[in-house]
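Contributing new complexes? Match this layout with PMV.
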Amino acid sequence: MPEKVVTAIGTPNIALVKYWGKRNNRLNLPMNSSLSMTLDESLNTKTSILFSKRLKRDTLYINGEKHDLEAKSTSEKIFLTKGVLDSMRQLGKNASKALIVSNNSFPTSSGLASSASGAAALVFAASHALDLGLSERQMSIFARRISGSASRSIMGGFVKWNRGEEHDGSDSYAEQIASQSYWPEVIDLVSIFHEKEKKISSSVGHDLTLKKSKLYFARPEYAENHVKEISEAIQKKDFETLAEITMQDSNNMHATMLDTYPPIIYLNEKSRDIIYAIHSLNESEGKNIAAYTFDAGPNAQVITLRKYSKKVTEVLKEAIRDARLIEAGQGSGPRLLGEADSLISEATLQPK
Ligand code: PMV
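Output block (do not edit by hand):
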């Protein structure tokens, strides 16, 4: 197979019904199904990959920081990435080592799903570089093994990740339930006011909550019902219900985190200011025109309809004066980029 650099762009997704708690840590199998909206390229990760016989080791650069995938003391995400790379190479009957260069357009590890867009772009690029011809379902399973929420970034529009029952994870993959053109009025106002890395990584958080929260036992069934209700709301284009469930589900997940002992608190005062501002806006409108949701970090994502974007933006600016606001529509999932976007110099086998 000719050695060539393949470059892909991937985007985050925002979960309207959250994944929190794993029934298998090694395979990232969730306790409940979840449902998300894939964002457009306003926030993105670009990833280039090269499999080459000239390379001695698997190396990954994330935003310029070098990670040796074969070093013994690697982080969990790096370890899982190496496992996925090995499985994909096995499938492609290709033993060459890989150089991967990945750049995020937005803060990494601050609760903005950088791992989801990164893992989706990596799996998409690797699948093409190795000519595997994988289906979306197969790519979703590989992406899930790196970072659970990444399983949902393989498809565009509204996406459901099925919990699955099998021990090997073969039925735990994401599927699109409505494409990005079905209800494009739904958008996400991403409000960034905290750019530091979170203190408790999501993998540690998943595990501690499951083990140490006494409220958690009620969460999986509650979330599973939310997935059904929100899927119906999407089919009917019923924004009021979508907004209500989105806020309740985020609050419920953060309640189990707070109930973990010692507590895990990702939200801060600014997050709370946004929660109050959105409730007061919805109250004054007499209906839900916006919904907040928070992942494993304090930054808010506010779901609204395009026609309310200006009004909601004003409310957010008023609530948090120094926030960076990014308006993201729905995206179509990862895609390949051309040679001009390559992040790897083939001559030196180094990042450009
Ligand atoms: O995919 P992970 O392990 O980074 O977990 C992320 C979980 C949340 O973002 C908090 C919720 C979700 O469903 O995306």
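Reviewers usually confirm one structural detail per submission. For this one: The pocket of PMV is lined by residues 15, 18-20, 34, 115, 147-149, 202-203, 295-296 (CB under 6 Å).
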